[in-house]
Amino acid sequence: MAPPNQNPLQNAGSWLFVELGLHTMRRASKDVYIIILSRYLRMFAYGTVALVLALYFQAQGLSDAQIGLFMTLTLLGDVVVSLLLTLVADGMGRRRTLMLGALGMAVSGTVFATAESYLVLLAAAIVGVISPSGNEIGPFRAVEESTLAQLVGEEGRADVFTWYVAIAVLGTSTGLIVGGQAVDALSARIGWTQLDAYRAVFWVYTAVGLVKMLFTLVLSQECEVHQQSSKPTAHQDAETEPLLPAADDETHPTASGNDVAPGAEIDAKKGKKKTWSFNLFSSISPKSRAILFKLCSLFFLDSLGSGMVPFSLINYYLDRKFHLPKGKLGGIMSATWFLSTLGNIFSASLARRLGLIPAMTLILVTENISHHLDYIAVLKPAH
Question: Scanning 1, 138, 251, 359, which has its CA 20 to 30 A from the CA of 100?
Answer without folding.
Answer: 251
